[in-house]
Write a structure and sequence with these properties.
Helix content is 33%, strand content 31%. It is an alpha+beta fold. Helix 1 crosses helix 2 and helix 3 packs across helix 5. The protein binds coenzyme A.
Length: 169
């Protein structure tokens, strides 16, 4: 496994077949293997062929094997209180590549874009089955907005302006 040869880059439509597979892996990790109802063709249509792309995507590519080992899907949202924001829909790193700063580098790529676009929040929902990731988001200075986050099925997690600026450095 070559952890030093990982490139974070914007996804292209040809990546979607591999991203669709990783979406299924993430759903299986969340104990919801039947949840994904879309395939790579829909991802290409909605994210790359539409006049108004519905989402953006970064991928982590292992250059020595030419394979994708992680992805992040996100899109702009808006807060009527504070303005431009981003929503992080998916963040996934293949099991054998975890704990080598690939997940945090995917977040940093989004934070740089969010910072340059004057976004004040990056929001995400975390399923309780993804609870190990709470520690990961906490480490990156995101806050859990869910009251009594423990025991709740969904956690609402937010990177505020200061956390975004730090990640974008
Ligand atoms: C969550 C996930 C994306 C993290 O990616 P990763 O590449 O393994 O994480 P990183 O190596 O970038 O970790 C960054 C830092 O957070 C720490 N960290 C990672 N996972 C952690 C955890 N579960 N608890 C506490 N700290 C954690 C790392 O030790 C590292 O700290 P350091 O900077 O001091 O070395 C990955 O574990 C994953 O895909 N999990 C399954 C899917 C999931 O839960 N996705 C999130 C919900 S959408």
């Amino acid at each position: 496994m070559d952890f030093n040869n990982i490139r974070i880059r914007k996804a292209v439509s040809n990546d979607m077949i591999y991203v669709a597979a990783m979406i299924k892996e993430l759903a299986a990790f969340e104990n919801l293997p039947d949840a994904p109802q879309i395939d790579h063709k829909k991802l290409i249509e909605d994210g790359f062929e539409s006049k108004k792309p519905a989402f953006k995507c970064f991928v982590a590519e292992c250059l020595s094997t030419n394979t994708l080992v992680g992805h992040a899907i996100y899109f702009p949202i808006y807060s009527s209180w504070e303005g431009r924001s981003m929503f992080l829909e998916d963040l996934f790193v293949k099991r054998e590549y975890r704990n080598h700063h690939i997940g945090s580098n995917l977040i940093k790529a989004i934070a740089k874009e969010a910072f340059n676009e004057n976004c004040i929040r990056i929001d995400l929902h975390l399923l309780s089955s993804e609870s190990p990731a709470r520690g990961f988001y906490k480490k990156l200075n995101a806050v859990n907005l869910t009251k009594n986050g423990e025991g709740s099925d969904w956690n609402y997690v937010r990177f505020r302006k200061e956390a975004i600026a730090k990640l974008a450095e």
